[in-house]
Structures are given as C-alpha cells and as structure tokens.
Design brief:
disordered N terminus; about 600 residues; 6-stranded mixed β-sheet; Deoxyribonuclease I, Chain A; alpha+beta; 15 helices
Length: about 600
C-alpha cells in the first residue's frame, strides 16, 4: 500500500486561531464560522495555495512522545520539526490551550489536530491534552466517526489512493486510570473507528493509559501480551486488554522505561503487527522523560492484508441439497480402489470425491452482510447491548492456544504405578486388528449419530451420512476395516475444532473452562463402532455398581438403587454411612501413558 496524494490544492498556513469556548482543536479547518450545539467556534486561516505532488510511499515513519508540556518548549519544537522528516508526529500531555496556535509549534509543514484538556470539565487548568501532526505532503482529516468527547483522545484519517490509516492517540490521567467505565468508553470509540474502516485499511493507536501494573511479555508466537503471572490486573486494566483483544489489535511497543515497565502503548491491526517496527528515538524532538522514552514507529505499507470477504465466502447449503441424486451419485462411484491405498490416502480420496459431488448436488449460500430486517436503530441497540455486557462482565477474553497446553501438566505415572494399576486389568480381551465391520453394521451405526447440517473439519456434515446411508456405508466400511488392519488412525480425522466453554467460577481463570471439540463425522462414526465392540467385550468385567457411561444405566438408576438400599437398611434398623467424592477435572487428570498401557494389555 502506498499512501499518496495526487496533485491537489491544500491549505498549509494557519496564522490565527481564536476559540471562544473550549472545543477540541481542528486547526486544519478552512476559514469559516461554524456553529453547533449552541456554541460558536471561529477559526481564521490564511491559505497558501500550492500544487503538491506526493510520490507513492511504501513505508511511513511515526514519532511518538509524552512531552510533559509544550508551553515552555514551543520554540524548541518548532526548530526540531523544521529539520525532522517524520510523516506523522503524535504527542501526549501537551498542556496546550486556546492561546497557543498550532502554527507556532509546526509552522506550515504539518496539519495539526488537537484535543486540549477541558479546564471546565476537569477543573484543572494545566496538564493533559493530545496532538497529532500530519505532514502536509499527505492528505488527512479528522475522523468523522463518533467518539466520546469527554476523553482526551482523537483520531485522524490519513488517506491514500486505495487505503486509509486511522491514527489515534489517547491520554488517561493517573487519577482516572482505574476508571473502568472511562476505558470502556474509549474502547467503544475505538470500535466505532474500526467499524468505519474497510478490511484493507489500517488502525494505529498510540496512548499513555497509565497502566504500570500491566507487564508486557513476548509470547512464543512473537507478539506481546499482558503476562498474567507478572501483571496485576485491575478492572480497568482488564477492560483495556479485553477491548483491544475484541478489536483484534496487538500491542507492539516493547521499549521499557527506567522502572523496567512499558507505560506508552502502541496498538495496531493484528494482521500487520509484524510490519510495524518500534524503536527508541535516537534524536528526540524534545527532552525525554525517564518514564516515557520517545519512540519511532516504522510502518511498512507494502504488506497486503489478507482477509476473507464475506460477500465471497460461499458455503454449501445442505438444507437445500438434492440428497436423492447425491445418494445415487455416491453409489455409482467405484470405491474398490480405496482397498489399494494407504489409510490416509484412502480418507483423502473419500473426502475429495464427496467434495466434488457436493459442488454438483448441493447449492451454495452467500451469507448476508446484514439481515433484511436490520436497520440503523437495531444496530445501535445491539451496540449498546454489547457495551452493557462488557460493563457487566468485566472479564478477560484473551484465549490463546497455549492456555490449554497446560491442562495435562501433572507428573506422568512411573513404571511402578503403571504395574500396580495393571494388576486388575484382564489380558487379551479382544484383538481389534482382526475384527472387521460389515456394511450393515456401519448403516446401523449411522442411525445413532445426530443429524446436523454443520460440517466439521472434513467438510462433511452428519446429515449427508444420515440421508445417504445406503450408498456411503460402502466406502466408510472399507476405510474403517483398513484402519483396523493397518493399526493406524487417519491423520485427517484427527483434526477438530475446539471451543472453550465456561463451566463456573471466575471467567478470567482459564481453569474454569472446558474444551469442547467438533470432530470429523467419519471419526465420530468410527468411535461409535469401536465403542460398541469394546463395550461388548469388557461388559462382563464392569462392576454392577457402575452406573455412569453404561448403556441402560444413568443417574436415575443409581439414585433408585441407592434409595432402595437406604430404605431397606432403615427398615432393618441398620445404619447407613455415605461418602460423596468428586474429582476435579477428572478426565483432564487421566494419565495418558497409563491409559495407553491398559488398552494395549
């Protein structure tokens, strides 16, 4: 991407600005008298008209600094910017007011956008304020998206021929850093900005959120995250991390201050986070503060964002499939060649053949961008509902894959433990490799699976098996028997979709979630067949007191049997002592080596 301004006429000099009432500065407004909300804003400009041609740029340089006040550094900043070559300058804690004109700070080389502190609302005459200065070689304007004006933040759009960079800046004063509602309002404004952008546009947000208790650590996948083991999450800190996660924005600044903390944060689209390099400024524009190093951010815009356009996201609509013709087409195929293949190759052939038939007999569905009954009012209500839900839950939502990697972190069973556990395990109950399924047994198993039009990782929903059972049972029988004879489970069927489902307790604790997996239909059917064989073989070894996971028995049968035992004991004048136990995350604590050893025996 190259942000480029074609030959155009722009206003580059601003000589006077007089604000009667405080409003966020927009010094790049044309000379006019504007009214709004009963308050008047007068901006007087002296335009210098010129024809500027901007060559195509493949990268942009941002400068960011918490300047801790510009009132005493006006001349220093002016001199520094005359020799600097930054495309965009972002400053926080500017301490500016209506008496200071932006042309005093940057001359005519930058279009300046300001949001000075409202002394009336904050009851403070000094401090705060944010500023974004964009080189006049670039075309820019203040974002028209709705943002909360009670917060010291602003966004500016920098336009290119094909793309837009939304550049934002925010300053949260220390007194308000623990205000989760304020953070949520800021996130809501950032959401409005993101929603106004196209998938090919960029969103870059600089800010001093005054969250020193968030410790940003590099992950194995080479991105920064707020380390739960080292950070102390306040409600506002969690709201910030949650909000940026929901926006799919990554924090990319790893430059630490004198206290070994990162106070100034830079968030950017996750898709292009690797294209943005942050470093400490070698020659800061102004004297730096030990807690806020000056930063230089280089954004490589030659990278193309890969995204899925939902208008072209075509999916099969199995609700409208012609299953009669599909069943006939499956039956007409010669599946005997599956016998000559390796099990993985056989499953691959089976899946690809069905996919080709789906293209012929299953219509495509194009998801709508918006429901036909949707309107602006309903979308606004949905936005308010989502904001209320965030305020109510106040919970973390960062779930990376590595969170679930520690589920099976218990020490593995040693050889002595395994030998002790094998003492009660019978030997050679069944040799599964010599067992073969018939086509009729596969059809019977198909009747047991639930009908669904939602496909798993293999792209084959269970409704295809249910309504085409007569024909599809043949290739499946060949695959199942080949898998048993080769003692190998198909690699493709090991894939699954995993969803974390909250059980109970603190939603910020990953231990309160259970992983639910969506399997391939073929693997689920195979599980039913093998499960029936194993159960029939080991049924005589199972205790009659076992009611869980036993066909024909349940909690109800357990309770009925226990109640009968208690009533009989009471009638006989005997005493009943009962002990209830519950193993926390029982399935997660099963030792895999011990389980495999028992199965092998």
């Amino acid at each position: 991407m190259g942000i480029c301004l074609p030959e155009a006429t722009v206003d580059t000099t601003h000589t006077q600005s007089n604000f009667f009432l405080h409003k966020p500065h927009w010094d790049s407004l044309p000379a006019t008298h504007a009214t709004g909300g009963g308050e008047s804003i007068t901006v007087t400009t002296t335009p210098v008209t010129g024809s500027i041609h901007c060559p195509t740029k493949s990268s942009f340089t941002f400068y960011y600094q918490n300047v801790r006040g510009l009132r005493t550094n006006i001349e220093d900043l002016f001199l520094a910017t005359t020799s600097a070559d930054y495309d965009i300058i972002v400053l926080t804690e500017t301490w500016l007011n209506d008496e200071i004109n932006s042309v005093q700070l940057f001359g005519d080389t930058y279009a300046v956008y300001r949001n000075d502190r409202d002394a009336v609302a904050t009851r403070r005459k000094r401090g705060g304020g944010v500023l974004i200065a964009v080189s006049t070689k670039l075309r820019s304007s203040r974002s028209s998206s709705r943002v909360d004006n009670s917060i010291e933040h602003l966004w500016v759009n920098v336009y290119g021929s094909d793309n837009t960079i939304a550049v934002g800046v925010v300053y949260i004063a220390p007194d308000f850093a623990t205000d989760a509602t304020l953070i949520e309002k800021h996130i809501e404004s950032a959401t409005n900005i993101s929603n106004s952008l196209r998938p090919c546009d960029y969103h870059l947000l600089f800010g001093d959120y005054n969250q020193p208790n968030l410790v940003w650590t590099s992950s194995p996948s080479d991105f920064l995250y707020a380390d739960p083991s080292e950070s102390r999450f306040s409600v506002s800190g969690s709201a910030l991390v949650d909000g940026m996660a929901l926006l799919n924005m990554k924090q990319i600044n790893d430059i630490r201050n004198i206290r070994d903390r990162t106070w100034d944060l830079i968030f950017i689209n996750a898709e292009i986070a690797s294209e943005c390099i942050v470093s400490e400024a070698v020659e800061p524009l102004l004297q730096t503060d030990a807690f806020h190093p000056a930063l230089v951010c280089n954004l490589n815009c030659s990278h193309t964002i890969n995204y899925n356009d939902i208008t072209n996201d075509m999916k099969f609509d199995f609700r409208k499939a012609d299953f009669v013709l599909l069943d006939s087409a499956i039956a007409s195929l010669n599946w005997s060649r599956l016998l000559e293949s390796d099990i993985d190759k056989a499953v691959e052939t089976y899946t690809s053949q069905l996919a080709q038939l789906f293209r012929q007999y299953v219509p495509l569905s194009r998801p709508r961008r918006k429901p036909p009954w949707s309107n602006g009012q309903l979308r606004e209500l949905k936005r308010l509902r989502a904001a209320a839900l965030r305020r109510y839950t106040n919970c973390r939502s960062l779930f990376e894959k590595h969170h679930f990697s520690g589920v099976f972190s218990a020490e593995p069973a040693n050889e002595q433990s395994i030998n002790l556990a094998l003492g009660s395990v019978p030997r050679d109950v069944i040799d599964i490799t010599t067992f073969l399924f018939t086509v009729e047994e596969v059809r019977t198993a198909i009747r047991k699976i639930k009908s669904s039009v939602v496909a798993g990782p293999d792209g084959i929903p269970s409704i295809v098996l249910k309504l085409c059972a007569e024909s599809i049972a043949t290739p499946l029988t060949i695959i199942f028997n080949a898998s048993l004879s080769q003692a190998k489970f198909p690699e493709m069927w090991k894939q699954s979709f995993m969803f974390p489902i909250h059980k109970k307790g603190d939603k910020r604790d990953v231990g309160t979630y259970r992983g639910i997996t969506s399997l391939c239909t073929g693997s689920k059917l195979f599980e039913i067949l093998v499960g029936d064989v194993l159960f029939a073989a080991i049924r005589s070894y199972i205790s009659p007191a076992q009611h869980g996971f036993f066909k024909g028995r349940s909690i109800d049968t357990n309770l009925a049997e226990f109640s009968s035992l208690c009533i009989k004991a009471m009638e006989d004048g005997n005493q009943i002592d009962t002990i209830y136990t519950d193993l926390k995350a029982a399935f997660d604590r099963v030792d895999h080596q011990l389980l495999l050893t028992k199965i092998e025996r």
